[in-house]
Amino acid sequence: MGMSVTISVAAAEDKDAVEQILKLQYLCYQSEAEIYGDYSIEPLTQSLDSIRAEMAAGTVLVARLGDEVVASVRGTVDADGTARIGKLIVHPRMQRHGLGGRLLDAIEQHLGATGTAKCFQLSSGHRSEQNLQLYRKHGYAAVDTQRVNERLTRVTLAKDVPADAFVPSA
């Protein structure tokens, strides 16, 4: 009998989770670095302390298969109500099975539950077609593009938080 993937909040104090997130991030961003010809991108150079700081400042969700972290996503809600979602990663062997979409839905639910989020926003490189396709499938639309360098244009996508989407149950 197979195991189920569970999604939960990761704590900065969970040393094992932080280390697994960093290793998974390094694995997952190799393909992005190859697409853009740049292996110095921030996800490949980020430190454990930096991930811990992100965890303390916002929300980090992990998907686990047993004890193994197989996917992760991060999010924060700014003072203006923009819920920023980033670093959605899924282990290559787990991709194309809906886990990225489940994790995206889960972080939206989590960030939207506070009642302060007005819109969700995330970004991707212009050549990262699988990522862009996932985001469009989940209702995101491009709202801005920014040329970072000759190889990369960052596409920012957003969608409004539905007014009744995350009303806590009584």
Q: From the coordinates shown, what is the CATH architecture? A: 3-Layer(aba) Sandwich
- Ends distance: 36 Å
H/E topology pattern: EHHHEEEHEHEE
- Indicate the structural class: alpha+beta
Low-confidence stretches: none
Fold-level CATH name: Aminopeptidase
Largest sheet: 7 strands, mixed
- Backbone shape: globular
CATH homologous superfamily - what is it?
Gcn5-related N-acetyltransferase (GNAT)
Which class in CATH terms? Alpha Beta
Helix percentage range: 25-40%
Tally of discrete structural domains: 1
- Strand line-up in the sheet with most strands: 1-2-3-4-5-7-6
Please give a structural write-up.
The chain is α+β, with helices and mostly antiparallel strands. The protein has a single domain (5-160), classed as Aminopeptidase (3-Layer(aba) Sandwich). Helix content is 35%, strand content 31%. It has a 7-stranded mixed sheet with strand order 1-2-3-4-5-7-6, sandwiched between helices. The longest helix is centred in the N-terminal third of the chain and has 22 residues, at 15-36. The termini are far apart.
What topology does this entry show?
Blueprint: E1 5-9, H1 15-36, H2 42-45, H3 48-57, E2 59-65, E3 68-77, E4 82-90, H4 99-112, E5 119-125, H5 129-137, E6 141-147, E7 153-160
Parallel strand pairs: 4-5
Antiparallel strand pairs: 1-2, 2-3, 3-4, 5-7, 6-7
